[in-house]
Amino acid sequence: MTSFESDYNNGAHPLVLRRLIETNDNSSSSYGSDIWSQQARKKIRQACQTPDADIFFLVGGTQTNATVIDGVLTGYEGVIAVESGHINVHESGAVEAFGHKVITLPAHDGKMTAEDLRAFHDRFYTDSSYEHMVIPGIVYITMPTELGTIYKASEIEAIYNLCQEYQLPLFIDGARLGYGLMSDECDFDLPWLAHHCDVFYIGGTKQGALCGEAVVFPHHNSPRHFFNIIKQHGALLAKSRLAGVQFDALFTDNLYFELSKHAIQKAMQLRQLFSKAGIDIKDSPTNQQFVVLSNDQKQQLMSHVLFETWEPVDANHALCRFVTSWATTDEDMQTLENALHSLK
Fold first, then answer.
1. SS3 letters across the chain
2. Per-residue pLDDT averaged across 242-246, rounded?
3. Do residues 145 and 260 share a domain?
4. CB neighbours of 59 closer than 8 A, spacing ≥ 6?
5. CATH number at residue 43
6. Stated pTM of the model
7. Residue 18 to residue 225: CA distance in whole angstroms
8. If 280 and its partner were Cys, which of 184, 254, 292, 300 is the partner (CB 3.0–4.6 Å)?
9. How many domains does the chain have?
10. Predicted pLDDT at 182
11. 317, 293 contact by CB (below 8 A)
12. How high is the pLDDT of residue 76?
């Protein structure tokens, strides 16, 4: 059945898969020193315009978030995120499992504001007993957010400036980074982002790879012995070529960004289909689209296409998520259009 459940329900893009097959019979070094990982790092540094960046390849998003945050923080520190942040809601307490509290701020369409960050910081340190509390040690945001919204350059810059003032590293979760960067509403590019944070990652799992995330410390600023930290978290790939080959392919001939652009184009088509059907759709410029369906509409559509129920709106309606990806086809869109036409 046609699926709009997520952006990681397909395998790998054919060019990525082809490179895995082509290199399959070649022997290589391990643990990140293989030639393909080295080539991928070089291409990512060029794409980010960060020649001194430290780059590590991990398998998935939750593993990456938990490893980076635990690697940066000391045992008594926590991470600041918005209430709807992925690490706070959808990672089964992975950050807390490594001993770090997630300190939450209000979310504004899924985003953090510099004003809320400043207010929290000032309030925290004016409490004379703050040394008895979990000390904020890193700031975490996602680009794009869990609600499909994106930060403006001015918003990230304001947060980053505060982080520098407060000596707090800024970590940007980029599991869907390409989909955010290719949105028509995004007013910055990858090099700009790389120069306005302390660590971020480029998601591969949701964007054309079988698996894999590329963690980038853009200023040659990875934590001391980060290799050992990755190993301790069970996150070190012995066959590092698996990630290296894939990212080498994704960052050849602009493939990563072309795949991201494709998903955005399909998402905008999807918006038009729902609008044409008279169904309320929330404002999202990325590949995640949120629509309000009646319970009857939801059941009827579920017999034709797969999608996710996000949350109830009231007793008779639900907010549902439809996600496009690099693998979404014209046939998928036609199936959805036919399903919408069949609604009673």
1. CEECCCCCCCCCCHHHHHHHHHCCCCCCCCCCCCHHHHHHHHHHHHHHCCCCCEEEEECCHHHHHHHHHHHHCCCCEEEEEECCCHHHHCCCCHHHHCCCCEEEECCECCECCHHHHHHHHHHHHHCCCHHHCCEEEEEEEECCCCCCCCCCHHHHHHHHHHHHHHCCCEEEECCCHHHHHCCCCCCCCHHHHHCCCCEEEEECCCCCCCCCEEEEECCCCCCCCHHHHHHHCCCCCCCCHHHHHHHHHHCCCCHHHHHHHHHHHHHHHHHHHHHHCCCCECCCCCCEEEEEEEHHHHHHHHCCEECEEEEEEECCEEEEEEECCCCCCHHHHHHHHHHHHCCC
2. 98
3. no
4. 211, 212, 213, 235, 237, 243
5. 3.40.640.10
6. 0.97
7. 34
8. 292
9. 2
10. 98
11. yes
12. 97
| CATH code assigned at 296 | 3.90.1150.10
Q: Same domain for 246 and 295? A: no
Residues 219 and 280 in one domain: no
Q: Tokens 């990512």 appear where?
A: 44
Predicted confidence band of residue 151 (pLDDT cuts 50, 70, 90): very high
Strand-pairing partners, residue 81, are 104
Instruction: Express each pLDDT in 274-300 by its tens digit.
Output: 999 999 999 899 999 999 999 999 999
- Of the three residues 203, 223, 254, the one that is the final residue of a domain is 254
Same-domain status, 97 and 56: yes
Residues 104 and 22 in one domain: yes
| Bridging pattern class, strands 288-294 and 317-323 | antiparallel
pLDDT at residue 68 in the model: 98
Confidence of residue 316 (pLDDT cuts 50, 70, 90): very high
Question: Which structural domain, as residue segments, surrounds residue 164?
Answer: 14-254
